From TrEMBL, chains A, B:
GO biological process, one term: methylation
Signal peptide: none
Protein's name in the database: rRNA methylase
Record's keyword terms, sorted: Methyltransferase, Transferase
Superkingdom: Bacteria
Segments forming domain tRNA/rRNA methyltransferase SpoU type: 113-259
Gene Ontology molecular-function annotations: RNA binding; RNA methyltransferase activity
C-alpha cells in the first residue's frame, strides 16, 4: 500500500515525528535511516510498521521487493523535514516495533566468540562495536550493567544496521552483581578475557591463543572495566601501546581484539 | 603576559574569530582546543601566537608553566562564544602559526613503520589515523595525492593533538604520478604493503611477517587504493571479514594493521 502524504500534521506520520527531540526511544520504536539500513530492517526480526520516503527512494526499494502489507508513505523533502524535525537528505526511513532480544541460553548454545560490554553508555561506541563485531565474525554482543540502549536511533545508524542482525542479550544484575552472570559463560565453556590498558596484563595474543570459546570483556573509555568484572574473568589482556600516548577508542580496541581472535583460530582449524 | 578582554570585537581575539565558518584554515593557523591538546601544542614545533580561555583554565595551564612571551587572553564564556561563534565549554584555545612539515628524507632515515594515505579527504578519519598511529608506535604518516589538510581544526581535535607531535610529509605528484615517490621508500628498504578488502589478497599477518621496515598503504573508505598505487607496492594484504558485512572504518583497519605490525616485530627482537 503506497500513499502520498503532503500534510506534515497527518497522524500517519507520527512514527517519524520529532526524531531529534524524543529520538523515538520513549515510543519504543526502531528507526532505520537510508536504503542500506532500511533494507536490513526489512530482513530482520523486527516487525516493520511503515516506510516513509521520497518517491524515487521508494521506487528503488519496491523494485527489490517490499511486503505489500507494509504501508509506504511518499513525502516531499519539505514534508519529511517538517515532520522529522531535520533535513533527511537520504530520503528513506522505516519504523519497526521492538522485538524481544535473543535468549542468552540460545546465544551460548552455538556462539564461539562473544563480546561483553560494561558501562558503555556512548551510543556511537555501541554502534561501532556492532559494526566491527559483525564484520569480524563475532557471534553476539552481551550487555553488562550500565550500557546504553542498543536500539537507539544513533546506534542503528552507526552500526550500519548490524544491531538489527547480530544477536544480543542483557546480563541481569546491578553494578556489583551482574558479574555473577558471567558464570553462565564459564559453564558454557567460554574463556573470559578482560581488555585493559594495564601494562602488567598479558599480551592479547597470548591471552587468546588456543582457546575454543572466548568472551571478550570491554569497559567504557576512560574508567574501563570495574575491578569486580575483571576479577570474574580468567585473564587480563592488553594491547601494547606506545609510551606517552592515550588509550585507543573503545570500538577500535575491540576491533583489534576481534582480529586477534580470528587470527588465533586460524591454527585451530 | 595575561590580559582580560571583554569586548568580542577586540582585534587581539581575531585568531579565534568565527572558527566554524572559516575553520581558520584559510588563515593558515593551527587551532588547539581543550587543556590536553593545548598542552601538546605548547610542546610542539609550532610557534604559539596566543592562548585564549576562561580564568580558571588559564590558571591551571599557567601552573604547569607557559612561556612568558605568549599572550594569554582571559575571556568569559559569553565573550568566547561571541568571538568563536559557538559555545566552547572546554574554555581553552591556543593558536599557532603553521610550521614546515618534516622532510621525507629525515623521516625515512630513522623510521621503521610508516603509513601512507591516498585520497583520504575525511578529516575525522585523518585525525583518528594520527591518534591510532601514535598509540601503536607508527613513526610517521605520509600523504599521497588527494588527502585532506592534516592541520585542519577537526583533525587536531580528533587526533587528540598527536598530529602536532607525530612527523608527517606529503609525497609529491598528481593522481597518477605520486605513486612514483614510493620508490624512495623502497630505496630506503621499506616493504610496501597495500591494505585492500580483496579476498584474493594475502592475510595481513603473512604480508607483514619478518619485515624489518614496513610502509602500510591505505585508501579512502569506499573507493580504497587506486590500482596505480597498489601496483607500486610489494604485496596486497587483507584483514579477513565475515561474509555479507561491510568493510571496517578506515582508521579501524589501519589500527588493526598497526597492531599486527607491532605483533610481528615482537619476534624480530
Amino acid at each position: 500500500m503506497r500513499l502520498r502524504i503532503d500534510d506534515p500534521a497527518d497522524p500517519r506520520l507520527d512514527d517519524v515525528r520529532d526524531l531529534n527531540r524524543s529520538d523515538a526511544a520513549d515510543r519504543r520504536l526502531v528507526i532505520a535511516e537510508g536504503p542500506l539500513v532500511v533494507g536490513r530492517l526489512l530482513e530482520s526480526r523486527f516487525p516493520v510498521r511503515c516506510i516513509v520516503g521520497f518517491g524515487p527512494k521508494l521506487d528503488a526499494l519496491e523494485a527489490e521487493g517490499v511486503p505489500e502489507d507494509i504501508p509506504r508513505y511518499e513525502v516531499s523533502r519539505e514534508t519529511l523535514a517538517a515532520v522529522a524535525g531535520f533535513d533527511m537528505h537520504r530520503g528513506l526511513l522505516a519504523v519497526a516495533d521492538r522485538a524481544p532480544e535473543t535468549p542468552l541460553a540460545e546465544i551460548l548454545a552455538t556462539a564461539r566468540t562473544v563480546v561483553v560490554l560494561e558501562g558503555v553508555g556512548d551510543h556511537e561506541n555501541i554502534g561501532a562495536m556492532f559494526r566491527n563485531a559483525a564484520g569480524m565474525g563475532v557471534d553476539a554482543v552481551l550487555f553488562g550493567n550500565g550500557c546504553g540502549d542498543p536500539l537507539y536511533r544513533r546506534v542503528v545508524r552507526v552500526s550500519m544496521g548490524h544491531v538489527l542482525r547480530l544477536p544480543y542479550a542483557h546480563l541481569e544484575g546491578t553494578y556489583t552483581t551482574w558479574q555473577r552472570s558471567l558464570q553462565q559463560l564459564s559453564d558454557a565453556g567460554f574463556h573470559l578475557v578482560s581488555l585493559t590498558p594495564d601494562p602488567a596484563a598479558e599480551h592479547l595474543a597470548d591471552a587468546l591463543e588456543g582457546r575454543e570459546k572466548v568472551a571478550l570483556l570491554v569497559g567504557a573509555e576512560g574508567p574501563g572495566l570495574t575491578e569486580h568484572a575483571m576479577r570474574a574473568t580468567d585473564v587480563r589482556a592488553r594491547i601494547p601501546m606506545a609510551p606517552g600516548t592515550d588509550s585507543l577508542n573503545l570500538a577500535t580496541c575491540a576491533a583489534i581484539a576481534f582480529y586477534e581472535r580470528d587470527r588465533s583460530t586460524r591454527s585451530l582449524g
